[in-house]
Amino acid sequence: MKRLVLLAVAVLTLPGCADTPASPDAELVIAAAPRPWIRGRVPLCQEHSGRYRTVWIRPDSKQEATHLAHGDVPGMCPDDCGSPAQIAPGQGPVGTDFTITDPCWRLQEGDLVLFYPQGDDPATGTLGEGIAVPNPQTLNGTVPISLVSGVLYYVAVRPTRTSPSRFPDMPFQVT
Question: I need a labelling partner for 84 at 20 to 30 A (CA). Which of 94, 102, 108, 169 fits?
């Protein structure tokens, strides 16, 4: 039996571009095709000779173990991702529930969320409370009640206190 694969392409004119001469920036082309994660695959960022690329593999497979053993890291490579991780809300009192979204798929169960004032070592930060990672793009938690109101904190997401952050640390204003 043969399978037919369809590729849909839409061309949209961006607002404000209608009065300008045609240029590569004047149109946005969107191709809707099956995505690898729909087929049960997860991304890994692979480095080879100083170049990075995202590969999509089956989770919990021998292939995944081999990639991780060679130093590949979970999630999309930054150049392939296009959007930074974000925390919402970006401010609130202690006890506020927050969600961190990462379109690069780098979040993992067991990640630590550290709140620290600017200039302090993130490793000495206060742990977020009730941390849950329902999928590699979403982390939910609660702002620790021990933080001081009126202080701008930064939020680091790390596998351990001393490991590098998974992405640039994000500001959170405790009100």
Answer: 94
Q: Which amino acid is at 51?
A: R
C-alpha span between 28 and 11 (Å, rounded): 6
Q: Residues 6 or more apart from 160 whose CB is under 8 A from it?
A: 112
For residue 148, what are its two tokens? Answer: 């001081």
Query: Token pair of 116, please?
Result: 């620290």
Pure H helices in 58-138: 62-69, 78-81
pLDDT at residue 109 tops 80: yes
* Rounded Cα gap, residues 83 and 104, in angstroms: 8
CA distance 126 to 83: 26
What is the model's pTM? 0.63
CA distance 18 to 35: 31
Q: CA separation (Å) from 147 to 92, 137, 169?
A: 11, 26, 17
Estimate to the nearest angstrom the gap between the alpha carbon of 60 and the chain centroid.
20
- Per-residue pLDDT reduced to its tens digit, 82-101: 678 999 999 999 999 999 99
